[in-house]
Amino acid sequence: MPIFDSAALNEGVRKREVFGWAMYDFANSGYTTVVLTAVFNAYFVGVIAGNASWATLAWTSALALSSAVVMLTMPSLGALADLRAAKKRLLAFSTVGCVLATALLALTGPGDLWLAMAAIIVSNIFYSYGESLTAAFLPELARREALGRVSGWGWSFGYFGGMLTLGLSLGYVLWAQGRGIPAQQFVPVTMLITAGVYGVSSLLTFVLLKERARPQAGAMQDNGLRASLARLAQTWRRAQDYQDFVWLLICAVAYQAGIAVVIALAAVYAEQVLGFQQTQTMMLIFLVNIASAVGAFAFGYWQDRIGHRKALAVTLFGWILMTLLAVAATDATLFWVAAIVAGLCMGSSQSAGRALAGAFAPEQRLAEFFGLWTFAVRLAAIIGPMTYGLVTLLTSGNHRLAILSTGLFFVVGLLVLTRVNVPRGIAAAQAAGAAGQPA
Description:
Layout: H1 15-38, H2 40-48, H3 55-84, H4 87-104, H5 113-135, H6 138-141, H7 147-178, H8 183-208, H9 224-237, H10 243-274, H11 278-306, H12 308-328, H13 332-360, H14 366-394, H15 399-417, H16 422-435
Helix pairs in contact: 1-5, 1-7, 1-8, 2-3, 3-5, 3-9, 3-14, 4-5, 4-8, 5-14, 7-8, 7-11, 7-13, 10-13, 10-14, 10-15, 11-12, 11-13, 12-13, 12-15, 14-15
């Protein structure tokens, strides 16, 4: 099946526009790969905080605080985007914010704790805003029966973008290390590389992607923000009208908590339990990204064929298998297998969840519903890593038990998923769109 198949797109949507949309996933993935997972986290703990006993807590606290801000503000921001048909404008604002804050990380060095924490909090907030806003374009681009494959196009592009940014960064790091340049000089350059790739790649999105929504009644009044908050409150009050979307949010909190652990702490687990060296960890991240890209792209087609719920269930079974493999691993070989499974599940589960959220989102409230989706994902980003950290604290650093406890998140997600009725959820969203009224 050709990439960007026109049959998967809504009427009037051109292939180049979908390419522009997918390029945003390409652009922003380097931020998570380099800043949150592969480079800056270790630099923060080892150089900026000087390997202090509280260094890891400071890092996870900064991430948790940024997630909490997004969790509380994104639904209202999404509602405002719907009222004023401002998804693209707000996406541009959030992109500039993340790019500038990421570049600001280049100014941090030993002892610059508060500057580094402020920059990571701001950059992660804007990254999360952008992630939610670009997801809200998905139902405008893809036919409902093709949400899975189109979502998969974006996710697979994203992982290649992450690999590009990581590859450029690691190439520079190896060059710098070969010349005896210390980390406090070469890591800041990788932040500039990441910001540059993000900013330049995202330009295609703003050139090619269209804002199809139209301002809604009352959107241009001075109380637009107040109206958006009122709409958000109404969404919660009438959540029973969208019970399947609510169950999906609960499911997402569970399994995304497990995914958040893998993203933030897999490298820590590999080093602490299996004694991985830095080069092995970097190779591991590359492998996970490759598997994730393949999983997101190929799985998207299969997802549309078998159904969103079954597809998501398969990935959750895969995550449970990955957890068991990681716990059982006593050498690098089995852990590499676990990493491949994690990569395949990473892309496919993220894509499947986004597609299902798009299927349940009423046409006039796309950004608001994806704001609620971001609320769930950010809540998971707090719960997962903090639970892992608490388990290691209570068990005197038992990382095997901590990763085993992570598997419970996927089990809970699988159980909650059984409550989701896809035809009923889609029907509720379509009924709200047909009525032409706020949901």
